Amino acid sequence: MNEEHQKRALLGHQLVMTNISIFHLLLPIVAFSTGYLNEIMIVSLLASLSFALILARGARESTCPEFVSAHWRQAWKRNRYILMSYLVSASVMGLGWVFSSTQTDPQMKKILLTTFIPMSVVPTLLTVIVVLVLQTMTMARAQQGLLPNNKI
């Protein structure tokens, strides 16, 4: 295994880690500590989806050596977990919105939204933590010149 292949294999994992670090950990903290919550979260979501497109494109690259291709496919697979967590989070938030929209009491609406907003963040946050750990292990395998463990 040459060093160039290892660098190319690591790039997909590094993109996932950058996506997690900046758009799932750093920017949400900034968003909640400033008055620009919606704007920052929308930018974060769009940037994260851009990373997903880059990873999807890299995973479909057919001219790469098998080692590089396997690592890019694994990075794309892990990024899909994050995309699925977005759907779960959006579903929880949608459920909260439906429940709150049926309420006639404004206080109850506020209570429901206050309850469902943090609950909707949990699936994505848990997924990000799991993917962060899995990516760290897979990056170590790439640095050692080993194929990724495709169980998860």
Number of domains: 1
The low-confidence parts are none
Which band does the percent of strand residues land in?
under 5%
Distance separating the two termini: 24 Å
Number of helices: 4
Most strands sheet: none
Radius of gyration: 18 Å
Strands, count = 0
Shape: elongated
Elements, N to C (H/E): HHHH
Structural class category: mainly alpha
What is the averaged pLDDT score?
93
Helix content: over 70%
Describe the structure.
The radius of gyration is 18 Å and the shape is elongated. The protein has one domain. It is 84% helix and 0% strand. α1 (3-33) packs antiparallel against α4 (106-143) and α3 (66-101) runs antiparallel to α4 (106-143). The protein is built from four helices and no strands. It is mainly α.
Task: Set down the secondary structure blueprint.
Layout: H1 3-33, H2 37-59, H3 66-101, H4 106-143
List the keywords.
152 residues, mainly alpha
Short overview:
With 152 residues, the protein is mostly helical. 84% of the residues lie in helices and 0% in strands.
